[in-house]
Amino acid sequence: MPTLAGHEFDLGLLGHRCWLELATGERIELPVERWTEPSEGDDVLLDACSGPTIDLGCGPGRLTAALAGRGVVALGVDSSRTAVRLTRHRGGSALHRNVFDRLPGEGRWRHALLADGNIGIGGDPAALLRRTARLIAPDGDVLVELEPPGHGLRHERVRLRPGHADVAWFTWAWVGVDAIAEVAVRAGLRVDWTTRHGHRWFARLERR
User: Fold this and answer.
1) pLDDT in tens, 175-194
2) Where in this chain does the record put each Methyltransferase domain (predicted)?
């Protein structure tokens, strides 16, 4: 999970239980165990990366480091300094930066990863995919993890818990596998394939 700056997110990176609280009062648990340890389904993403890969919202770096261990050039990007430190500790390369800021190798990456719900960064998946499309080479792709069918496209105001009473609200989004084709088109991309592994769903997007 990405790019939720602040002390509360850092606690999740370190394995402490945390969740998103929606303005409606709904609570969505965050899979902090999956952020830190290899997870069933990771190989769907790892096996699809045959060349230089940028991992957006890399968190503690399990995918970035796993790719490096396979001999694939990989760079993690995260707005949390703790995430960057943990990624480097695993042996991966990482950069402390917002994904919407200027990044190394723009337009030359073979693959871009948006795993663990990172399609929600910024609360506007089409805008995020347009940004991501500018990072990849003309024949590159974006590998995205999605919600199961039936979830559609959802935007909500959320805040990270537990935390102080005045912790900031921000917009997050969720994209179901049934909604990714429409979102991709709005970003100038198209769906090449979708697949499921256990309870996790993935898609490969390429330029139209």
Assistant:
1) 999 999 999 999 999 999 99
2) 55-140
3-state secondary structure 121-170: HHHCHHHHHHHHHCCEEEEEEEEEEEECCCCCEEEEEEEEECCCCCCCCE
Domains and CATH numbers, the chain: 9-207 (3.40.50.150)
For residue 172, the SS3 value is strand
Whether 14 and 165 have beta carbons less than 8 Å apart is answered as no
Place of tokens 């002390």: 7
Residue 31 or residue 203, greater confidence: 203
- Residues 92 and 74: their CA atoms lie apart, in Å, by 7
Q: Which two tokens stand for residue 151?
A: 């979830």
Q: Which secondary-structure segment (H or E) carries 203? A: strand 200-207
pTM, to two decimals = 0.92
Structure confidence at residue 4 (pLDDT): 47
CA dihedral 147, 148, 150, 151 (to 10 degrees): -20
